[in-house]
Amino acid sequence: MSERRGRRGGGRAARQAARSSAAAETSAYLERRLPPVEVLDEAGLVQIEQNAETILSEVGVAFQEFPVALDLWRAAGADVEGDLVRFPRGLCRQIVQQNAPSVYTQVARNEARSVKIGDNTTVFAPNYGSPFVTDLDQGRRYATLEDFENVVKLTYLLPQLHHSGGTVCEPVDVAVNKRHLDMVYAHLRYSDKPLMGSVTAPERAQDSVELCRIAFGGDLADRTVMTSLINASSPLRWDATMLGAAKVYAENNQACIMSPFILAGAMSPVTVAGLAAQALAEALSGMAFCQLVRPGAPVIFGTFASSMSMATGAPTFGTPEAGLAIYVMAALARRLGVPFRSGGQFTSSKAPDAQAAYESASTLLPTVQAGVHFVLHAAGWIEGGLALSYEKLIMDADQLGMMEVYARGVDMSDNGQAMEAFRSNTHGDHFLGNGHTLANFETAFYRSAIADNNSFEQWADEGSLTGAQRANGIWKSMLAGYEAPPIDDAIDEELRAYIDKRKAEEPDSIV
Q1: Residue 113 carries which DSSP code?
Q2: Mutual orientation of helices 91-99 and 272-293 as an angle, nearest 10°?
Q3: CA–CA dist 419, 412 (Å, integer)
Q4: What gap in Å lies between CA 360 and CA 99, rounded to an integer?
Q5: Helix 320-336 × helix 272-293 angle, to 10°
Q6: Full-model pTM
Q7: Nearest CA-CA partner of 65 in 247, 228, 244, 259
Q8: Is 248 helix (H, G, I), strand (E, B) or coil?
């Protein structure tokens, strides 16, 4: 037995080297060949659309403490009473369909990494918004700017993640009113993938625009270089902070994900159809607002939809109801004609364990099968979003690589049909030495950097490591070998000068 282990030592070293290095470059975004899965017929989708119109016209949506929005809606023909706006049936849909693009390109600092959002594409972006991080060495702790920069670097190195994301974790060691400057700078300096801007105040959104203007050579020239998350205050409200940020981005032709945030049973009715009607109403009102600010500004129909425990009130993830909601709302977005954001790899688990894997898979598969265009929280999410796990970031990215193969569908080229292999293979012989196998063996099957497929003896000989332990070694090796993408020294100096100036203009704040 030990002799057999020794013969395999070279292969083990090669596998370990491959796992500790960044994966080979892949396409800038995923192009799906599989048709989307439909779970509702035409009659069902039409009924939900009609229900959404009833919500908009009879119940209304509040645009809180933001007079500009109320003035725009009055001028557009809506009924405004205080902060509450009621919309004539079909008004929001008409505004969106007549103005919002069905597909757009978000330009990256490295244009080879620019992403197309809409049509048959999927863009994977990492975790967002967690105040904590966790890893096998230090456990759970408040995130710092160093953690934020580490996650940006890892995301840059992981080809399965197409987008650098936004607030990948909250760097709580930096003042609330200033951390957005460091976060946007980290995305611009330590990655050249597309990024998201700050949405926690209108002036922070404007800072994001100005920093990108500098990084992209001094003039955005109407290029869309950010796709940023604008959450509704569900149920049926948009607050002034989110509206102010959305207005800044729309005015500058930057994309907004207008995204209801719904835990069914708390922020919406408990049913999938009820949740979908509310989410459609909220998203329609938000996307239409952006079009009133600037016709043609890119928008995404966003959703964050899950459920809650009726026994404890805690959020639950990876449930079948949440998966059905993704399918339904993706279909509603296709009918509306705008890109769609949903899904990810959600879990309530506190560790990268079996619960985390099952719950994440139960969200990821509907995400890909439904044809979601922009996927936030695609990697790293743990503990119901309260924490980012370094190990799960790596493990999730591995699953995203599998989804890329899945979404490509069945290869029906001459090589895919493999008829030459049958013609050239001796009857009854295995195909291991066949020319077709030898020509395709390196690319025939997805090769996981995490999974262990060896014998028990070899696994034990290599340390009996779990998947999380293998991922721990991978992210450390990746950071150790990280090299920043190039940036012009003058641009970097101007970025830093802008940040220093803005930080000096006001004292630190906790809000």
Answers
A1: G
A2: 60
A3: 11
A4: 35
A5: 40
A6: 0.94
A7: 244
A8: helix
Q: Tokens representing 139?
A: 């456990």
Contact between 294 and 242 (Cβ < 8 Å): no
Residue pair 424/435 in contact (Cβ under 8 Å)? The answer is: yes
> In tens digits, what is the pLDDT along the chain, a chain of 511 residues?
333 333 333 444 444 434 434 333 568 999 999 999 999 999 999 999 999 999 999 999 999 999 999 999 999 999 999 999 999 999 999 999 999 999 999 999 999 999 999 999 999 999 999 999 999 999 999 999 999 999 999 999 999 999 999 999 999 999 999 999 999 999 999 999 999 999 999 999 999 999 999 999 999 999 999 999 999 999 999 999 999 999 999 999 999 999 999 999 999 999 999 999 999 999 999 999 999 999 999 999 999 998 888 888 888 999 999 999 999 999 999 999 999 999 999 999 999 999 999 999 999 999 999 999 999 999 999 999 999 999 999 999 999 999 999 999 999 999 999 999 999 999 999 999 999 999 999 999 999 999 999 999 999 999 999 999 999 999 999 999 999 999 999 999 999 999 999 999 999 998 8
Place of tokens 């840059």: 156
Token pair 């079009």: residue: 291
The DSSP string of 175-210 is -TTTHHHHHHHHHHHH--S-B----SSHHHHHHHHH
Whole-Å CA distances, 54 to 61, 91, 325:
11, 12, 20
The CB density around residue 236, as the number of other CB atoms within 10 Å, is 20
Residue whose structure tokens are 């580490």:
150
Can you read off the two tokens belonging to residue 115?
């992403």
Quickly tell me which residue has 């205080």 as its tokens. 82
Give counts: helices (H), strands (E), the chain.
19, 20
Beginning with the edge strand found earlier in the chain, give each strand of the sheet holding 299-302 in spatial order. Answer: 30-31, 121-124, 374-375, 340-341, 299-302, 255-259, 227-231
